[in-house]
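Today's session is about reading a structure prediction critically. Students often jump straight to the picture, but the first step is always the sequence itself: look for stretches that repeat, for charged clusters, for runs of hydrophobic residues. Only then move on to the predicted structure, which in these notes is written as discrete structure tokens rather than atom positions. Here is the chain we will use throughout the hour.
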Amino acid sequence: MSQKITFYPLGNAESILLELSNTKKILFDFADTHTDDFSDKRIDLMKELSAISSFDVVVFSHAHDDHVKGSKDFFEFNHARKYRGNGRAKIKELWVSSAFILDTDIDSEDARVIRQEARYRLKEGCGIKVFAAPDELNTWLENNGLSVDDCSHLIIHAGTLLDSSEHSLGDEVQFFVHAPFSEDAEDVTDKNEPSIVMQVRLFNLNRETNILITGDTPYSVLNKIIVRSEDNGNKEYLFWDIYDIPHHCSYTGLSDEKGDYRTIPTAEVKKLLSEYSQDNSIMIASCKPIEDHAEDNQPPHIEAKRAYDFFSDGKKFLSTMEHPSKVNPKPICYKIDYLGIQEDRARNSNITTSPAPRAG
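Below is the predicted structure for this chain, in token form.
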């Protein structure tokens, strides 16, 4: 038994594919940022994933374009005929924050289509999990002829363990849901705060491998995750072997101040990096090359990178647009089995074949 995880070089955007030994596939976000410009080194994500006709779970962490771009042309959505067929990839189960359902100020057409699909599936009562239940969600359900009781089996709260009794992915994987918290999903004007955050635990014989998926969650939410997990006896779900660094290596995943040379994390985030990282663990930032002198204040921030290096006690750090080099970035692929995490240099042939027809 073994699994494979792949992080794609998409610039300041994210998509992560987890493939299980039972052939189940989980995709965390989808952002096809590639252009036809010859100098564009970002991978063509539609082409890369074109041989996969169906995903068992697709998780959209939040509604920003750098986590959803191109989705309306790649996936099949059941709520409208124009988004069906034409070689589109099916989504057996869609996982979204309740903020996605409630958002009336959607930034992009891709996010709008995902929102409509999520609302459609919620009304149908199947093929979806919705994370967090703020009062506004109750109101939305009532306004659409539903009740919380009708949808309780579809709504997942922070602090919930999703094991094989709660999903259809088999017994080699479980998910502990850290966020969003209902209070952060209440106001959707800041789309980063209600990001889905979860620990993904993989089982191989006697070895457990933990992956911490963070989306674009800010330090303030990470603080709450750490405090509440410790207070509620859930410390084991903070451990990580692979840390999906939040928000494209922005300092906002560490603190409210960038710092002059190195960002100083909050006490809670510092603990997450040092005390909860495991031996031979890896940090991966889905981001552009990290420059010493950025032209603007957008991530990635070199000050944050220095913080991850320092406060994790020198754990391995990779950025997607710099692996194996800035000149020729390639997907970061790891095989996970009873021996632990090993770099998978041979690309999985079933996701590198010629592209199937796509709409758009």
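Discussion point for the tutorial: Confidence is low (pLDDT under 50) at residues 348-360.
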